Each structure stands twice: as C-alpha cells, then as structure tokens.
C-alpha cells in the first residue's frame, strides 16, 4: 500500500479519535450513516467501510 491511507481508513481513524476524545460515549447511539457521511465529506459506502473496519477492530458494535 502507498504512503497515503485509503479514504475509509482515514475516516475510521477519525471516528476512532472522536470516540477516544469522548465525543461518543460507550453505548451511545450515533447519528445515521447518511449524516456521518455528510459531516465527514465522504460517500456513504466509504463511511460504511470505515464503520465495518471499526467493528472488525472491536471499537464499535453495530446493533440492528
């Protein structure tokens, strides 16, 4: 992989930093993927890939 991170990884790192900073509390329901994508300036599929990466890393938990 090149020196630049893939966009979804950049976004995942940004969301993880928000969680670490306390912006999102444990168990707190976050805004919709559409709104998160708009806030981050990325497409919904990119945001979903970021959220999936965070879920795989055990940082977040998706609930139906």
Overall description:
- With 64 residues, the protein is mostly helical.
- 56% of the residues lie in helices and 0% in strands.
- The protein is built from three helices and no strands.
- Helix 2 (33-40) crosses helix 3 (44-56).
- The longest helix is centred in the N-terminal third of the chain and has 15 residues, at 7-21.
- The protein is globular, with a radius of gyration of 11 Å.
- The protein starts with 6 loop residues before the first helix and ends in an 8-residue tail after the last helix.
- The relative contact order is 0.20.
- The mean pLDDT is 89.
Backbone CA Rg: 11 Å
DSSP helix count?
Answer: 3
Average pLDDT confidence is 89
- The unreliable regions are none
Strand content: under 5%
- Form type: globular
Share of helix among residues?
A: 55-70%
Strand tally: 0
| Main beta sheet | none
Notable traits:
64 residues, mainly alpha
């Amino acid at each position: 992989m090149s020196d630049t991170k893939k966009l979804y990884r950049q976004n995942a790192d940004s969301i993880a930093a928000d969680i670490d900073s306390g912006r999102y509390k444990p168990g707190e329901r976050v805004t919709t993927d559409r709104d998160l994508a708009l806030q981050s300036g990325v497409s919904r599929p990119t945001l979903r890939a970021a959220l999936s990466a965070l879920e795989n890393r055990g940082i977040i938990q998706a609930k139906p």
